[in-house]
Amino acid sequence: MALQILDHPLGTHALTHLRDQTTKPATFRTLAYQVSLLLALEATRDLALRTLPVQTPLETIASRVLASGLVVVPILRAGLGMVQPFMDLFPDVSVGYVGLERDHETAVARSYYCKLPPLAGKCVLCIDPMLATGGSAVQALSLLRERGATDLRMVCIVSAPEGVKAVESAHPDVPIFTGALDRELNAKRYILPGLGDFGDRLYGT
Ligand code: PRP
Ligand code: URA
């Protein structure tokens, strides 16, 4: 399905500094917030609206508000660095958690935690800054689908072509919103040029 790459000067600016290896965790977190906020706006551009009558100081009009609930699901741990802007923009959002960790040798993700609100009938945004092999995203999306999600979207900060391909083939109906589409994976399945280990840089580990 559709791959949408963020096209905003602030996104480009923030990504440059996220990639810079001298950027410290505090600044890294602020930049991650900025890119995630822009991505949150893009990924929710087509949310359904319903009519709501509202009395202005002058007259009553049939205006519109968001029609259905939104759920955001960060993939732990790095996905936590993207949650705040979704909560700031959508105060009624529900937040679920999926814990996945890649094995350092095989790059295969192991599931260690899952706590999800009801997903049926909701717009469900799975968020994870790095889409490398796509193994983590494919697993998380499958889990969300098993729990009843039908309107699913994947939101990432940096993606590799390999990861995009994996998600597209396992979940062809899931659009991917990404801050950047990078060149390739290296032998250890890190994204090139990428920004290194997002979780480590976010939390200074
Ligand atoms: C990173 C990242 C993704 C995953 C991407 O997490 O946040 O979840 O790797 O790689 P993949 O597309 O090859 O699956 P990691 O497993 O390093 O765990 P962390 O978030 O706890 O740092
Ligand atoms: N996870 C990261 O944090 N960075 C990568 O480049 C790949 C997976």
What does this protein structure show overall?
32% of the residues lie in helices and 32% in strands. With 205 residues, it is of the alpha/beta class. The chain has one domain: Rossmann fold (3-Layer(aba) Sandwich), CATH 3.40.50. Strands 1, 4, 5, 6, 7, 8, 9, 10 and 11 form a nine-stranded mixed beta sheet that branches. It has a two-stranded antiparallel sheet with strand order 2-3. A two-stranded antiparallel ribbon has the order 12-13. Helix 5 links the parallel strand 10 and strand 11. Helix 2 packs across helix 3. The longest helix has 19 residues. The structure holds 1-O-pyrophosphono-5-O-phosphono-alpha-D-ribofuranose (PRP) and uracil (URA).
